[in-house]
Amino acid sequence: MNLKRRKRVVPLAVISALALTASIAAAQDTQRQQSSATSAAHERTIQGVWRTAVTPRNCQTGAAILTLSGLFTFNQGGTMSEYGIGPGSSPALRSPGHGVWQREHGWQDYSFAFTFYRYDASGVFLGSQKVRATLELGASGDEFASRSAIEILDVNGAVLGTGCATAVGTRFE
Fold first, then answer.
1. Which site from 40, 75, 118, 119 is most exposed, i.e. has the minimal number of CB atoms within 10 Å?
2. Averaged over 67-79, what is the pLDDT?
3. CA distance 155 to 107
4. What is the Cβ-side half-sphere exposure of residue 126, based on CA atoms within 13 angstroms?
5. Between residues 26 and 79, the one the model is more confident about
């Protein structure tokens, strides 16, 4: 009788041990995947959403003209969106900005460019504005500083004027 009982218990013990081993392996794999996803999320990159303070400047003297708050979103794959309204201005006077970005040399240097449309108070299309910038990501990966060259274009794409700006950004989380 003892031998019959052993013949039943041993296979059950082996099956239980295999099930436990498979369960532990699956848990470790899940933990490894979560750790990898967390590492990717904390990789130093500009991908993500940023609160910005943009300061248009006199290109010759560097003197600040004003500062406006905005938002930048750098998407995976190299596209971006931007939005910012100057003090006393109206959201009806411009569209959101859309553009592209890329990593330059090293982990902290980037460039980006975007454009947006401009309208008068009656909603008449006035032209567009192009912004090209270089960006340096801070050591923590949660702040940046950028320098921009701006072109103001008429409805036919002719340059009406140029400008300069700096910006600082803080990652939104």
1. 40
2. 97
3. 38
4. 14
5. 79
Q: How many helices (H) and strands (E) does the chain have?
A: 1, 8
Cα–Cα distance for residue pair 117/86, rounded to 1 Å: 15
Q: What angle do CA 51, 93, 64 make, to 5 degrees?
A: 50
Count of beta carbons in the 10 Å neighbourhood of residue 95: 16
Using one digit for the tens of pLDDT, what is the confidence trace for 127-153? 999 999 999 999 999 999 999 999 999
d(CA 138, CA 90): 32
Please give the average per-residue pLDDT across 48-59, as a whole number: 98
Question: Other C-beta atoms within 10 Å of 167: how many?
Answer: 24
- Look at the block and give the residue holding tokens 């902290």: 108
Eight-state DSSP code of residue 124: -
Residue pLDDT, tens place only, 20-53: 444 555 555 555 554 444 444 457 899 999 999 9
- Cα dihedral 137/139/141/146 (nearest 10): -20
Classify residue 33 as left (phi > 0), alpha (psi -120 to 50) or beta: alpha
Assess whether pLDDT exceeds 70 at residue 13.
no
Residue with tokens 């010759």, as numbered in its chain: 60
Q: How far apart, in whole angstroms, are the C-alpha atoms of residue 92 and residue 83?
A: 12
Give the CA dihedral 44, 98, 147, 164, nearest 10 degrees.
-170
Residue found under tokens 């218990």: 9
